[in-house]
Amino acid sequence: MDIETLSGLKALWTETLGDPRVCIAILDGPINRSHPSLIGSNLFEINTLASNEPSQGPALQHGTHVTSIIFGQHDGPIKGIAPHCRGLIVPIFSDRNNGNSLAACSQLDLVRAITQAIDQGAHIINISGGEFTPSGAAHPLLAKVIQNSFNQGILIVAATGNDGCECLHIPSALPSVLAVGAMNSEGLPLIFSNWSQDYQTHGILAPGENILGANPNGDLSTHTGTSYATPIVSGIAALLLSLQLKSQQKPDLQAIRSVILNSAIGCDTEPGLDCHRLLAGRLNITSATIQIIKGKNFMLTTNEADRKKVQENPQEQLQDNSTTEVDTMTSTSYQHNPSSLQKTMSPSTLKIADCGCDLSSCGCGCGCGNNSQTQLVFALGKLNYDFGTEARRDSISQHMAPNANDPYHPEQLLAYLEENPWDAASIYWTLNLDATPIYAIQATGAFADRVYQRLREFLDEQTKGEVERISIPGSLAGSVQLFTGQVVPIIWPNLRGMYSWNTKELIAAVCKEKDTEDPSKDHIENFLIRVYEELRNLGASPRDRAINYASTNALLASDIFKDALQKGMELDTISVERSPICRPESDCWDVKLTFFNPCKMFEQARKIYLFTTDVSDIVPVIVGKIRTWFAR
Questions:
Q1: CA-based torsion, 530, 531, 532, 537: positive or negative
Q2: Model pTM?
Q3: What is the three-state SS of 92-113?
Q4: Rounded distance between C-alpha atoms, residue 340 and residue 150, angstroms
Q5: 170: which DSSP letter?
Q6: Please, what is the Cα angle at 104 between 100 and 106, to 5 degrees?
């Protein structure tokens, strides 16, 4: 199927081929940017764990094909859906060792990729992949980063998968994601396209059979699957966002998401179909275009036959303003399909960059924050270690004392390293969340031996129960494969911010009163635990680095809680926002703690405490004083 034959697309192209301010991130395989269809496209590729893997097989083929569906230039062999938008290439797939299949991307790797895409200014994130899940539950970090994306007004579009079953894939199963299944040219679900009752609330079918796209060898090829239906929906969403900008509407991708779902063609006129497999319906480009042009949204009860007529007569309908409308899409709250999330969406906070900076210096041209290619990290977790290979493990084991030669026994390994400190560099020290390694720690530079000494101290204290968590600030530098086969990024750490602590001892140190019944102690402990558990993260985005640093600064938290408790108030929410005021060449974020009085919830205003953290350096720093005020 040639993309330009999509019903309603040519009429939409008369309105826009995409706004260069709109950025679409492609989380897929690497691409061949020299393909004739991509020459002249505005694409920027960022480094990921998959970027370091050479690929000439299915990963490159998959990534190039998916990218061309959106960004194929109209003077080339493939006319992409949104050729004038900006593209951010974020590789998450690589080839397996045999070169004949894709290596899986872990959910933690997907968290990293989504975080990188958002930091580089992505508005739409296309994920033509997923992981089968019986329950529909995602890793807590993935669920959180996707929900945060939704809250920021960013649209994630993901494939439902090709298992041909009533089953769920992550991330498409998450309710804030726009899930995409595949249909043929007649609008019938393809036999392998997954379906589920959950997808009926936030999923849509798009063409996915024999989709023409770019082949890395310079030719064209056709492929079938939900992977190729997904970029069609992402591209249409980008055009609708571009249309909002053209008509000077407030950019609102969550409203566009609702328009795509609400205008979908369902089963009303074809009752013989298995409606469960249609998800929320079939993509209706023309109806969605009309709604965005008018700045309105159709009622969910719009006659299905009228929708069918809209699809069959796109140009006529684009000129016809008689369609029933309700609910203006403005900055007010927008009521989403009640059968989906069962709640009212907040107004979008989407920001569209509009400036003239050098496109080659950052991911999507403008508004990308720090343009440096060095990825800073300030991560919290527990220390562990790994040997990488059996040979390295056995080598260390054979050099240990005969009666203490178990390298997996921390006390025995520490005793060995005390006598042979140079071998600390032969171990992959890891930072873990729960039992999952998220980084490998590799010392470098003149003080590398001091870093390894500090790591040995941390492990010793942790083994004795004296330390619960450590902080590791640094910069990312490649990746390493652990003994289990898991690939994790490497941190080059900075001694200046490497801390270890036990929560209760930390609280005792900052609460100077001798009274053991000091009520602020419990509240500070609750704050720290919420950061560790409720807000836990990979420490890679500026937002996450700011909140992680706040949790290491318990003295600051102590001052806040003492003041709040004197007024009978308790902690309600913790939030982080980019600071509107910052020093030159800095990256400042406001950490905001909101308190309420449980005895006077409707009588007393909430009190807000705010402090600013500059995360532009490897080790963040607090800027200025704590600010506080009351707010309703």
A1: positive
A2: 0.78
A3: CCEECCCCCCEECCCHHHHHHH
A4: 14
A5: E
A6: 165
Q: What is the pLDDT of residues 299-343, one digit of tens each?
A: 333 333 433 443 444 334 333 333 322 222 222 222 223 222 223
Say how far apart CA 380 and CA 431 lie, in whole Å.
Answer: 8
Tokens of 411: 């006390």
The pLDDT, as a whole number, for residue 280 is: 92
pLDDT at residue 302 in the model: 35
Q: Which two tokens stand for residue 206?
A: 């798009």
Question: Is-contact 428 480, C-beta < 8 A?
Answer: yes
Length of the chain: 632
Angle at 523 between CA 522 and CA 526, to 5 degrees: 90
DSSP E strands in 240-367: the ranges are: 334-335, 344-345
Q: What is the DSSP letter of 356?
A: -
Confidence at residue 516, expressed as pLDDT on a 0 to 100 scale = 54
Burial group, residue 629, by CB count within 10 angstroms (0-12, 13-18, 19+): exposed
Domains of the chain: 3-355 (3.40.50.200), 376-501 (no CATH), 511-631 (no CATH)
Please give the Cα distance from 37 to 78 (Å, whole number): 5
Q: Taking the mean position of all CA atoms in its chain, how far away is CA 120?
A: 11
Burial status of residue 578 (CB atoms within 10 A of its CB: 0-12, 13-18, 19 or more) = middle
Question: What does residue 257 show for φ and ψ, rounded to 5 degrees?
Answer: -55, -45
Evaluate if residue 156 carries a pLDDT over 50: yes
248: Cβ contacts below 8 Å, ≥ 6 apart: none
- Residue 231: pLDDT over 90: yes
Q: Is 232 helix (H, G, I), strand (E, B) or coil?
A: helix
Q: What is the pLDDT of residues 252-282, one digit of tens each?
A: 999 999 999 999 998 775 655 677 889 999 9
SS3 216: coil
| Structure-block tokens of residue 158 | 């993901």
CB neighbour list of residue 536: distance below 8 Å, 6 or more residues apart: 140, 141, 380, 433
DSSP one-letter string for 480-540: EE-TTS-EEEEEEE-GGG-EEE-HHHHHHHH---S-TT-HHHHHHHHHHHIIIIIT---S-
Which residues neighbour 289 within 8 Å (Cβ) at sequence distance 6 or greater?
8, 11, 12, 15, 240, 243, 318
Collapsing DSSP states into helix, strand and coil, what is residue 357? coil
Count the Cβ atoms, other than its own, within 10 Å of residue 118.
Answer: 21
